[in-house]
Amino acid sequence: KTKTTQISDQTNGMASPQVRSPELRKDSVTKRWVIFSPARAKRPSDFKSKSPTTQSQQQQECPFCLGHEHECAPEIFRVPPSSGLPWKIRVIENLYSALSRTLDDPFAQNHNPNSSGSVGQVLGGFGFHDVVIETPVHSVQLSDLSPQEVGEVLLAYKKRIQQLATHDAIKYVQVFKNYGASAGASMSHSHSQILALPVVPPTVSTRLDSAKEFFHETGKCSLCEVRVEDLLIDESSHFISIAPFAASFPFEIWIIPRHHSSHFHELDGAKAVDLGSLLKLMLRKVSFQLNNPPFNFMIHTSPLQVPNSQLPHIHWFLQIVPQLTGIGGFELGTGCYINPVFPEDAAKVLREVHIP
Amino acid sequence: KTKTTQISDQTNGMASPQVRSPELRKDSVTKRWVIFSPARAKRPSDFKSKSPTTQSQQQQECPFCLGHEHECAPEIFRVPPSSGLPWKIRVIENLYSALSRTLDDPFAQNHNPNSSGSVGQVLGGFGFHDVVIETPVHSVQLSDLSPQEVGEVLLAYKKRIQQLATHDAIKYVQVFKNYGASAGASMSHSHSQILALPVVPPTVSTRLDSAKEFFHETGKCSLCEVRVEDLLIDESSHFISIAPFAASFPFEIWIIPRHHSSHFHELDGAKAVDLGSLLKLMLRKVSFQLNNPPFNFMIHTSPLQVPNSQLPHIHWFLQIVPQLTGIGGFELGTGCYINPVFPEDAAKVLREVHIP
Ligand SMILES: Nc1ncnc2c1ncn2[C@@H]1O[C@H](COP(=O)(O)OP(=O)(O)O[C@H]2O[C@H](CO)[C@@H](O)[C@H](O)[C@H]2O)[C@@H](O)[C@H]1O
Ligand SMILES: Nc1ncnc2c1ncn2[C@@H]1O[C@H](COP(=O)(O)OP(=O)(O)O[C@H]2O[C@H](CO)[C@@H](O)[C@H](O)[C@H]2O)[C@@H](O)[C@H]1O
C-alpha cells in the first residue's frame, strides 16, 4: 500500500472519473445490502502492511501429522477405514471443543435448560465439534490434492454429517475451513472443521426465509434460477462456480450444484470427485491470482430433521471467501459489508486467470 | 500462546474439570445465539502470535495532523467553529467515500434505480461518508483526552447526525471507530467515521424487531429493563456500562443511558461530558487490562425520519469491542459467535481493574 502523501492531488474532487459510482446490492439469497465502492480500494494506510501469505513457523510436525495421533483428541473415523494401511484423512474430536458432546440434550424431556428471562435465553452447550485432517503430511494443502482426494475429503464431511444427523437434538451442521492466520486458523496443518449445533443459526434462518419468499413469489428455487452470464467463473459436469451478485467480500466465490439439491450430504461419489475438481481449481485460481491469501470456505446446507420433500426452495452451496480486506466498526455495527470489487469484475479476472 | 505438544496429556478427557461447561445464550436485544466456551481459550496456535499492540510506522505527521488540512477531502465543520483559533476537532468528507453524496436520491420520483430482478435488488450508492478527526495531534488517542474533550467529540457526532437527518433519503447513520490495524484502521491518527445510509441496515432491523417483540410482550423497553447485577462494570450520573448477557466478543462492553432515549443525537451538553467520562474510563480499563488491544466502537441508535414518540421500545447504546480473537469460517457461515469468556467474568475483571 502506498503512503498518504501521494494522494493530495486528488483532494479537490471526489472519486476520480474513471472510477465507477458506488452501488448498493441485495441478493435474493442472503437478503443483505452490500455497498460496492471501487473508490475504497485506493485508500492508503499508514500501518505496516500485513504479509499476504501465511507465515507459519518452520515447523515440520504437529499433532495432526502421521505418527502424532496420540497427541490428538479421540478419532471418530479414518479414510481408508482399514487400520492396517496409513491413513489419508482422519476425522477427530476437537480437543478444545466449543460445544460438549457429553452434556444433556438441551431440549430433552424433564430437563429445563431453556430458561427465558427478560434478559434473554440460555441453553446448555450440547453439540459436536470435530476436526477433519485432510492429509497426513504437514506441508500438503487441500489444493495440492488430486480431484479424487479432494472428493474423499468431501465424502468424509458427508459421512460425518450422516452420523450427526442421527442425533435428534442436532438441528444444523456447519462445515468450514480456515486457511491462514488472518482467516482465523490456529493450526497450519491442512484441516477443516465440523460443528453440529442444537439450534438453527441466524444466517441459515435468514437464508431459509428469503428462499421461501422467493419460492412463494416465483414458484422457483432462487439458486436453480441463479443468472450466470457475466458472473460465471467456471463449470463442471454437476456444478457451476460464480461470483455472487451481491458478494460481501472481494473475490468471493460460490460453487452451486446445477441441479436442485437441499442437503450437501446428498452428494454421491461421482459428484464428489466433480466438486473436488472444481473446488481445487477455484482454490488454485484464488491462490495464484491473489498471492496465496488466507481464506475461509463454508458449506451452506439445509437444517437437519427436515425431509428433502419439504425443501423445494432451498439449495445448498459452498462459499469461498478470500480474506483480503478485513472488516471494521461499520460492518460490526450494521451487518452491511463494503466491497471494493464489483462481482462481474472479480468473475472476469478469475475466469481469465491462467494457472501455469 | 503455547505449543501444541504440551497438551498431549489432556487428550484422554475432554475439557479439564475446572473449566465451566459451554452454554448458548441469546439476548433479547441482538437475538443472536452466542456459544460461551471457556475451553476454547486454551487452544494452541502454531502461527506466530500477532503483537497485541498496534504497530504503526514511526510517522509523526499525516493528512489528519494540524497544518495538513490541504491533504484532506473538504471540511464540513470544525470545533471550535471560529477559523482564527487552532482547531480541536475536524469533521471532513472521507476522501475514499464508500457512498457518493453527489448521486441522486435513489428513492426520488421519476428515477427508477430500485431494479428488482430474480437475482436481487440494486440501488444507486447515494449516501455520506465522513471522518471525525478527534485531535490535531498525531500521537494523542481518544482516551488521552479529558472527559470534556471526549464530550466535544460526541457532540460533533451529534451535530453531524442532525445535519444528515435533514436529507429525507438518509434512513440510518452509523457512527463507529476503528482503533488499531486488526480492528480495520488504515489511519493511526485518532479518528472515527460517520456513514449515512439510504437503507436501514440488517442488524438495526433485527434490533428493532426484537425490541418491538419485547415491548409487545412486557410493555417495557428491553434496555430500560436490562438486569445489571453481576454484569455491571461501572456507572455515571446518566449512564451505566455493562458486559452484555450474550456478548459476541470477549470483554465486549455496552454503555447504556439510564433513562429511555431512542436517538443518540438527543444527547445534551451535560450528558455528553458524563458519557465522555465513562467512555474514557472504559477505554482506559480495556487498554490497561488487555494490553492496548485493537478495538471498535459503534453507536447503535434508531432510524432517522421516525419521531421519538413512535420509539418507546428502542433505546440507543454504545458498543465497545476489543479485537482479541478474530473470527473464522464458523462465524462467517452461521452468524453465531464463539466467546471464550463469560460476560459475568469479564464484568468482574473490568469492574476490579485498578488503573494506575
Ligand atoms: N491436538 C489436538 N487434537 C484435536 N484438536 C485440536 C488439537 N489441537 C488443536 N485442535 C483444534 O484444531 C482446531 C484448528 O482449527 P482452526 O485452525 O481452523 O481455527 P480455530 O478453531 O482455532 O479458530 C478459528 O475458527 C473459529 C471458528 O470459526 C473461530 O471462533 C476462531 O476465532 C478462529 O481463530 C482448533 O479448533 C483446535 O481446538
Ligand atoms: N486525506 C484524507 N482525507 C479524507 N479522508 C481520508 C484521507 N486519507 C484517508 N482517509 C480516510 O480515512 C479513513 C480512515 O478510516 P479507518 O482507519 O477507520 O479505516 P478504513 O475506513 O480505512 O477501513 C476500515 O473500516 C471500514 C469500515 O468499517 C472497513 O470496510 C474496512 O475493511 C476497514 O479496514 C478511511 O476511510 C480513508 O478513506
From TrEMBL, chains A, B:
Keyword Transferase recorded: yes
Q: Which Pfam families match?
A: GalP_UDP_transf
Q: Report what the protein is called.
A: Galactose-1-phosphate uridyl transferase N-terminal domain-containing protein
> How is the co-factor bound, per the entry?
Binds 1 zinc ion per subunit.
Q: Where is the composition biased (Low complexity)?
A: 50-60
Q: Does the keyword Nucleotidyltransferase apply?
A: yes
Active site located where? 191
- Where is Zn(2+) bound in this sequence? 62, 65, 138, 189
What GO biological process terms does the UniProt entry carry, in alphabetical order?
Answer: galactose metabolic process
Q: What cofactors does the UniProt entry give for this protein?
A: Zn(2+)
Q: Where is the Galactose-1-phosphate uridyl transferase N-terminal domain?
A: 21-201
Chain intervals for the UniProt region annotation (Disordered): 2-27, 40-62
Q: Which UniProt keywords apply?
A: Carbohydrate metabolism, Metal-binding, Nucleotidyltransferase, Transferase, Zinc
Q: Compositionally biased, Polar residues: which spans?
A: 4-19
Q: Which GO terms describe its molecular function?
A: UDP-glucose:hexose-1-phosphate uridylyltransferase activity; zinc ion binding
